Amino acid sequence: MGSNLVLPEFEPIFGILVVKIEEMISAEIKNKYELVVGLEVHAQLLTQSKMYTADSTEFGNLPNTQISVITLGHPGTLPKVNRKAVEYAIKMGLACNSNITRTNIFARKNYFYPDLPKGYQITQDKGPICVGGEVPITLPDGTQKSIALTRIHMEEDAGKSMHLAGEVDTLVDFNRAGVPLIEIVSEPDIRSSDEAYAYLVEIKKLVRYLEICDGNMEEGSLRCDANISVRLRGAKEYGKKVEVKNMNSFRNVSRAIEHEFERQIELIEAGIEIISETRTFDATTGTTSGMRTKEDLNDYRYFPEPDLSPVIVSEEWLASIQESMPALPRELYNKFIREYGLPEYDAGVLTDSKEIALYFEELCGLIHNYKAASNWMMGPVKSYLNELTLHISDFPISPRRLAELIELIDEGKVSFSAASQKIYPILLEDKVKTPLEIAQSQNLIQESNEESIKPLVESVLAENSAKVAEYRSGKKGLMGMFMGQVMKKSQGKADPKVATKILTELLEN
Amino acid sequence: MEKFLSFDDIQKSLEIRETDCKAIVNYYLQNIQTKAHLNAFVEVYKESALEQAAKVDEKIASGKAGRLAGMVIGIKDVLVYKDHEFNASSKILKGFISQFTATAVQRLIDEDAIIIGRLNCDEFGMGSSNENSVHGKVLNAADESRVPGGSSGGSAVAVQANLCTVSLGTDTGGSVRQPAAFTGLVGIKPTYSRVSRWGLIAYASSFDTIGIFSRNIRDNALVMEIMAGPDNFDSTASRKPVPKYSELLHFDKRVKIAYLKETIESPALQKEIKENTLSILERLKEEGHEVEEVEFPLLKYVLPTYYILTTAEASSNLSRYDGVKYGFRSPNAHNLESMYKMTRSEGFGEEVKRRIMLGTFVLSASYYDAYFTKAQKVRRLIKEFTENLLNKYDYILLPTTPSTAFKFGEHSNDPVAMYLEDLFTVQASVSGVPALSLPNGKDQQGLPIGIQVMANSFKEAELYAFGSYLMELSNN
Amino acid sequence: MKIDLNTVKKIAHLARLEFDEEGAEKMMKDMTQILDWEEQLNEINTEGVEPLTTMSSEVNVLRADKMGEHLSHERALQNAPQKDSDYFRVPKVLE
Description:
- The complex is a heterotrimer of chains A (509), B (476) and C (95).
- Chain A contains 16 helices and 20 strands.
- Chain A has helices at 27-31, 83-95, 193-209, 250-269, 315-323, 329-338, 344-350, 354-366, 370-387, 399-410, 416-429, 435-441, 450-463, 465-472, 479-489, 496-508; strands at 9-13, 16-20, 33-44, 81-82, 99-100, 103-104, 107-110, 120-123, 130-131, 134-138, 144-156, 160-162, 169-173, 180-186, 222-232, 242-247, 278-282, 287-290, 303-304, 311-312.
- In chain A, the strands form five sheets. In chain A, strands 3, 5, 9, 10, 11, 14, 15, 16, 17 and 18 form a ten-stranded mixed beta sheet that branches.
- In chain A, strand 10 (134-138) and strand 11 (144-156) form a beta hairpin.
- In chain A, helix 3 (193-209) packs antiparallel against helix 4 and helix 15 (479-489) crosses helix 16.
- Chain A starts with 8 loop residues before the first strand and ends with a helix.
- Helices cover 36% and strands 6% of the residues of chain C.
- The longest helix of chain C is centred in the first third of the chain and has 18 residues, at 21-38.
- Chain C contains three helices and two strands, in the order ααβαβ.
- Chain C has a domain at 5-42.
- Chain C has 95 residues and is mostly helical.
- Chain C starts with a helix and ends with a strand.
- Classes of the chains: A alpha+beta (509), B alpha/beta (476), C mainly alpha (95).
- Chain A binds chain B through residues 69, 72-81, 108, 110, 112, 114, 117-120, 170, 172, 174, 299, 301, 303, 306-309, and chain B through 78-80, 86, 88, 93, 96, 98-100, 102, 197-202, 205-206, 232-236, 312-313, 315-316, 318-320, 322, 324-326, 336, 340, 360, 363-365, 368, 372.
């Protein structure tokens, strides 16, 4: 690529002149450096009630209608732990192969903000419920990698503060205050924006498979902060890390990382020290900026939460949670490749969502033509769902009926085109009729019996002896015409494969 | 002639129809008015108490009355009562109306006790003299130039001056026992977690307990029996069953009693209190009990341990008072930060601010290990020592306070001197064990002296029985 | 532990308190006195002693995942120092 000779633009910053190169910094310079990223993901848990109170966690209700005295931090109130939230956290740990902490205590994280009613968040500091673990990711080029986890712990969400342009005040809604969260902290193992993207895709998949979170970043049920630093390739020490917040989609996390990578390299190349700070991402410009308010590094003064008794995870409890674990995306992926002989691409698409994977599993329990099943899923089924933005659970064709349809094709009873263009659409509208019933009522059953087709072929050839001669002297293209005639004589019911076979036999002899 | 000096008197009177609940309430209301200058009550629930009385009278007539029918109770300004105002004696909660009732209070109401009003105290329970209250100080009825003790000063004086039968206070480091000693009453701090803290405005979460003031043991035991026990709203409340304390007061054993050398030999101990304590120990020996002196070299460290941990917990518990959701908000604020700072600086009193600052300091990153972790370790040592001692001995006996009631303003300029008033009471709070203060004579100025007994965790029954026995002994 | 005015300022900010000059001086003196007194704990050997983190004798006090009673909207906002029909209101953060 080479370096671009562009007139540098001088921008005074804090009295220091920094050369700001308009075009991307050169690939050569970039290659000197290694990107080091750790991601902190918060996932809102799909429990009925909040983490430490019995308020509803339902989304979208009128402001300040889902709160109790405990949520508001009224004097004299006390928290109580939601058993299900603990189980969900453990499930995530088991899915990531983490060590589950047996004796759990909670801690207070103290700071002041209007949407934090008690003036502290009840979280876990020392002794998180899950320690270590890993998340397998697949990159766009197919390579697989494992991102190690530092920890997963339980905590509660804050309320919502709204700073609106026309208002003189900040408006606070406490409905969300207290909703259960798990915080998933990765080791700084991520080395590119692609890896970060893949990691988030995998986390989303996992939480959805486990049914503990709906993993939607745009709606806020999944949130991500990034810790980004750079160092020279081969260096052992980590560079100064910068925290980036306010990225509300996987794509934006990717963009923020790319931007930070370049920004930090620019500074280092210019001999300027990286400041360890918190920066906010701006989606419109794709850049990060330091948060202007002069915030001393917040001292959260963590200490053990005295209002909660310890939570002990016994062997029995752990075993019962383990037993209730669903098949995980990675397990199904491997199974589809090894047991069903499917290519990696198919396995990837089919395990993208748990419901699709489970539908597919059911389908494969009914027929053995796994590849055909896969093709139907990735083709007609997926396009139908995408077109109508439907969920597979609303798909009008059950695995049983789809299996029957595929069998009809395999047995030669209907042609593929009849199946996909005539029968399939009817199956979508009519939830009761079987594929066989439709094939029969629509007169689509093919004739595959050689004995029945042979006479038809013979009569076609007899009626077109001149063309037969032309075929035999080299005009192989006439096969199409003969086929057409045979299909006409059979009212379209002749199995094209069988007809072709007989025609070929008779013509070549 | 003072009437209704015990619940037994009340019950007997009711039985022979000599009186009814309305009359009882009116009697107390009259006393409250006459003694208004003592400033024990912050608010008197005149109408609702009389309404409640009428209802309880009906229930008595139809034979459906609860076990506390006829009892009139005052509650400290930190125990919440639905749809009533509560301030924790602080400006920062002025106008605050509670949306629920404390479990302990509800259980008493469910047994037909009548709540006559809320009682003055030190702000957020922080103090040993009831001089730190937004409602003004409380006067000791034994000598009105002197403090009643704190933080539950109002609760103590209410019973002392016969303004109600029994009152509820809270004891975090001695705030029931010390005022009980200063006013000549029975005051108990139960085992930590014996009584639910749901509805108790938190000061130091791992120390706070709800205690009872009464004139005699039986009233105290009866109220405790009804209040105590598991509660779904408090995750730390003990799920152990509650014995019927009021039926277990009989005592005729020979027991082993320890007393701590360092308490008796403390240079801070007032001479008459020392003599009183020694004389009771002698008496017990004469009665055939084993009385032994034990060394407790950690005694002088109990108070600093207590203050590091309680200020830390308090600094966090009081963060919710920020002017956002309830209570006072400074009218001078112009942005978020100034709202927080002005609200809290104008809303909290001096002592509270001091403790918040200290607590914030010991929790701060650079000092956490040196102070907070250290104090947590010493707490374990003190707790283990006390529990081990109480495994070997049935009771530990010691004075409740180093001095009798002191004059107003005596410790105003010296926070540590004020803290030293709790010297003998904090051990039970740090260890979590129950402790009872009993009236044990008077000093030469006629001021009440208290004697304190500690028993092992969840042994309130043994404590009450022994207390009953001790009170008889000192009367003979 | 000798506390200086700078520390008083920092701690006050963490606790969202503010003091005038006189108040800060007094707080500095009081904190120094009390912390010195608290430092006596250093005289005790606590090597190998586990910090006490809970005073509760119970474990696994957990709640089933069910919805409980909410405060009515009116009651929820009842004590708010400043509010409108839907929200709690606080002054904005001004930079």
